[in-house]
């Protein structure tokens, strides 16, 4: 196989960071954009910058994904989640480069009670989901050679995510609450990086598989169930006195943005197309928490 070069946007994001490390480990070359290049939103300079790196694939992991902050500042969210995507799509099409892009389970309204397939009806209930759906539509319009991977409930040992926030609460308080009426699938950022690399390696075979795919960690849970798994792992490290996670409803939780009550993704298409199986999020969670406390020693 030839030496594949990736251009990664958002290299400091949870998935971007994991992707850069994993791609290098897989023998790929990796370059990345400085955020200031993208935030100009100027097509010609961005296209010229991409061309100067001579990548084989562009992978966009940029995402303003703090949902409540996005709800308070929809314009900023739209710029980060949509405007960047549209100019990247235009640039990649102009250079005849494939674009891989991360989207979200929050493009769905949560009214279903069976896992969402890629062609299910989309109706976001918050500004973050609206911006990400608009980005998907722009990419489909402007860049035929695209792979969109919808993911949800991303966690890692860095950034602002549910695992790290819950760990802080467990260390600081005896009483920790979590929402018990929203269902989804936590997803380890390193597993998403694995998925992106597996897709790229198969795109090298010149197969026509462009389009949208779903990937998440295996096992449906609630935020409360996720928090209970975090608590169990934290106890093994002796860093919390908390004993239980207390359930609250979505209405009782102080959130600015509504969330879908059910955002479970059907991942059968990515399995049948690329042979990519879901990995249990619990094994990723153990790795993350071990990493967090090793770093603190």
Structure overview:
The protein is α/β, with parallel strands linked by helices and 297 residues long. The protein has a domain at 5-160 and 187-216 and 264-279: NAD(P)-binding Rossmann-like Domain (Rossmann fold). It has 11 helices and 12 strands. The protein has helices spanning 14-25, 35-39, 43-53, 67-72, 74-95, 127-142, 162-172, 189-203, 223-236, 268-274, 281-296; strands spanning 5-9, 29-32, 57-60, 99-104, 146-151, 154-155, 176-179, 183-184, 187-188, 211-214, 221-222, 245-248. Strand 1 (5-9), helix 1 and strand 2 form a beta-alpha-beta unit. The longest helix has 22 residues, at 74-95. The model has no long low-confidence stretch (mean pLDDT 94).
Question: Any idea of the CATH topology of the domain at 5-160 and 187-216 and 264-279?
Answer: Rossmann fold
Helicity, in percent?
40-55%
| SSE order | EHEHHEHHEHEEHEEEHEEHEHH
The biggest sheet amounts to: 6 strands, parallel
What's the total helix number? 11
Mean pLDDT: 94
Rg to the nearest angstrom? 19 Å
User: Low-confidence spans: pLDDT under 50, at least 5 residues?
Assistant: none
Q: How do the strands of the widest beta sheet line up side by side?
A: 2-1-3-4-5-10
- Per CATH, the superfamily of the domain at 5-160 and 187-216 and 264-279 is NAD(P)-binding Rossmann-like Domain
| % residues in beta strands | 15-25%
Number of strands: 12
Q: What is the molecular shape?
A: globular
